[in-house]
Amino acid sequence: MKSFRNTSFSVYLSDGTRCRGAYYPGDTRLVGIHVHGFRSSVNNTKVRFFLDHALQRGYSWCNFDLPCHGRSEGQFRAFRVSTALEALLEVIHRFRGASLMLLGSSMGGWLSMLAARKLAASPNAHIAGAVLIAPAFDFFAQSFQDESEVMRQWRRDGVRRFTDYYDNQPYEMEYAVVEDALRHSVLTQPSVYNFPVRIFHGDQDEIVPIGLSRRFKALSAGSDIAVHTIEGGDHTLNRQLPLFAAEIDRMFEKVRASQAV
Prior knowledge:
Layout: E1 8-12, E2 18-24, E3 27-35, H1 45-57, E4 59-64, H2 81-94, E5 99-105, H3 107-118, E6 126-133, H4 139-143, H5 149-157, E7 159-163, E8 170-174, H6 176-181, E9 197-202, H7 210-219, E10 225-230, H8 241-260
Parallel strand pairs: 3-4, 3-5, 5-6, 6-9, 9-10
Antiparallel strand pairs: 1-2, 2-4, 7-8
Helix pairs in contact: 2-3
């Protein structure tokens, strides 16, 4: 397979939104795609760490900003899971014919599995494996489905103000994000994934309970899925990045070995 030449690229969504990304060509037997989390970007600690790791190892690597995040277009209050999934699928389409490894952080883990399910029958998309870090499966459905007065007010007003858990910055979200997210569940019906999935989740995760990862595994009977519990681990798991990098190395080596036969 020829090496991809351009390091910077853009994908355009059906509504015209532009999402920006970068591709770093290396060993094209496998392309790693990092999908960042909610209110994150390619400037996140994890994204930079894994990019440096990939460059040191000579891996082909791609990262990009989801719509409404980082350098990509869109107002954050109008964020939708459906447009984020569309963006990931467009990025994957750029590498049609290549073997892919998805690295998903938090919401990026959820999006990775949504994309894998969408592409299950596609002859042009071969996902060789996935590494998920504290995946936020069905996050909006899990977090915003109570019938409190706050939720009723959000539905009435259409917009709600939040404060970011990590940087204390205010932001707004439209209630439609919840309605949209309910159409993208991985925890309501069984699914089978035909590639290895390695999940790392902290048992002290303050944002996404580890039980969601365990539920995902239980619903994926017949799939090669392992959930690794990080004792005392929070949601960021930034102290364990070398552990996850070692798992990425194993996936790359497995693909290299299979293609060398």
